[in-house]
Every structure is written in structure tokens, then in C-alpha cells.
């Protein structure tokens, strides 16, 4: 019987190949993966675990916090604070950065995460996930204490990024800058087993993902692209398109990594409108790193997301990512409009 490659073995092999995987990064990813197993276990219990429903509190985004949001955040903090590989952490669920307690050694990496993405789907039993991003801590060399500004690095500085999707299977999808790999949780053994050793996104697609109820707020290039998709075979794109919208970014991106597609959460066209819904530091950047490593593209409509210099920890950004030819088409439409 073919021996199964586990996450640890994959990371050790990457370490040997002198990829971005240092011993600290390996420990960090293994620790996050173990925390995702615990989160997936809590999610899987559902009503039996007494963890469904809301807490009646709001997070820094002004979004109602689900019990599982806060529990998932705590699981990631507790799993990662003692290992000595991190200088600090940041999360969608926390207003400011989380400093490693003085009783633990500090490391040279920063960990950012959306502990449970897709919260609106928790109580209706639809796939949700955890997204994480790893940056180097610039302050480490200077010996000063880490601060929020140290997190404000463009997405191209990421050392690693990944997500866990808690669906019919629990999967962990990861990049350390050497392509994209996928692991499936072997629930009997409790180990992440390599099942997808080279995930790539088809260049073309005939499937788009967008929340159509926001149509009145879209910029013209987005409207033009979607209208062309809806025009089907007789339209300028010459083929019929299908539509999906799960409203869990992790699940929508996982589908695109699995069979192609384009995911759009565009910025709002109104002058007073939001720059987008998704947060750049712990949603758009990690997903863009993964999508690019899988041969796709990721922009805010016009600019490559990984080049954007963030100015605030919880900054929002428009997101257009997936099959390269489709993303570049939307980019062209923005350029023609400029
Ligand atoms: P809407 C989940 O709340 C999330 O942040 C992403 O996971 C998802 O893609 C998006 O929001 C869904 O937003 O407006 O369709 O509910």
C-alpha cells in the first residue's frame, strides 16, 4: 500500500529543498494545522457542542460575533503563543495585535488569521473555514518591541499562506511559495494527508462567483463583465456561464482552485461606498498568494492585490481572483474605463 505523505513530511521535504520553510515556519504551520483540526472538531459538533448561535457582541468589523468565531480565535491564540516562533498575532476578531506574553520566548514571524471565515453560514451548516497568513517580523532585527505597523506589509512579503475548509471533508490548502498543495484530514488518524500535490487553476473558466444583490453598487467594468457572462453563447464571450455564490470565501476559493472560476467581491462604486467587504491582511492577501501560486491572478479590479501597500490592519479591499484570463479581462475593462 502506498505510504501516505503527511503535512510534517511535506514540510520537512520543503525545508530540505531550502524553500521558505525554516524550522520556525515548519513549527508554525504544523501548529496552525493542529489548531485547525481543533476548530474543525468544534464546528463539526454543531448544536451538540452548544457552540452555535451568536454571543450578542460585535467584533471590530461591527459584525455580530458567533460563539464559534470567538472560540476559533482563542484556539489559534492558545496554540501559537508558547512556541517561540512568533512575535505577535493579528485576527479579524481582535481590534489590535496580540503580543506574545512575556512568559514565552518571541520569534521572528507574524501570524494573521480570519479564525472562522463565513460565519453567516455556521448556523445553517454550510462550509466555512480558517484563513492564515505568515509574515516576517521586521522589528526582530532591531530588538525593539513589535507594533501594529510591522504587520502592514504588502502581500508579496508573505512567507506562507493557507486555509482550512470545514466541509464534507476537512482540507488544508497551503503554499510556502513552491506551488499549492492540499491535505485531507484523516479523521481516524487525526493527521493531514497530502492528497493534492500540485493544485493549479485552469486559465479559462465558465463559472463566476459574485453576490448579485450588490449589482446596483458595482463599477461599470464589473457590470460589463457580468453582463457578458450572462449573455452566454450569443454574447461577446461566446459561451454560457454558470454561477455559484456560497458566501464563504474559503469555500468559493476552494472550488476555484479545484475547477477554475472567477470570484468577485468588488469595491463599491458609490463615493461613500466601502473599498470592498473583504479584509486585505487576512483574507485577500493569503488567498491571492495561494491563487497566484496556483497559476491564477488576483486584483482589486485594477491593481495586483499582492502589490498593495496596506495602511491599516483591518483595511478592506475589492477582490477579483481566479482564472487568469478572466481576471485579466476585468482588469482590461477597468483600464479602458480609466
Ligand atoms: P455576503 C463571510 O462573511 C465573508 O467575509 C466571506 O467569507 C464571503 O465571501 C463574504 O463575506 C460573503 O459576503 O455579502 O455575500 O454575505
How many distinct beta strands? 17
**Strand portion:** 15-25%
What value does the Rg take, in angstroms? 20 Å
Average of per-residue pLDDT values: 94
H/E element sequence? HHEEHEEEEHEEEEEHEHEEHEEEH
Q: What is the share of helical residues?
A: 25-40%
Strands of the largest sheet, in order across it? 4-3-5-6-7-8-9-10
Termini separation comes to 58 Å
Low-confidence stretches: none
Structural class estimated from helices and strands: alpha+beta
Pathway: Carbohydrate biosynthesis
Cofactor: Mg(2+)
Binding site for Mg(2+) 1: 92, 114, 116
Organism: Candidimonas humi
Structure report:
With 338 residues, the protein is α+β, with helices and mostly antiparallel strands. It is built from eight helices and 17 strands. Strands 4-3-5-6-7-8-9-10 form an eight-stranded mixed beta sheet, sandwiched between helices. A hairpin with a 4-residue loop joins strand 9 (181-186) and strand 10 (191-196). Helix 2 (23-45) runs antiparallel to helix 3 (67-80) and helix 5 (220-231) packs across helix 8. The longest helix has 23 residues, at 23-45. It is globular and about 60 Å long. The structure holds 6-O-phosphono-alpha-D-fructofuranose (P6P). 6-O-phosphono-alpha-D-fructofuranose (P6P) is lined by residues 117-120, 211, 247-249, 252, 265, 277-278. Homotetramer. Mg(2+) 2 binds at residues 114, 117, 283. GO terms for molecular function: fructose 1,6-bisphosphate 1-phosphatase activity.
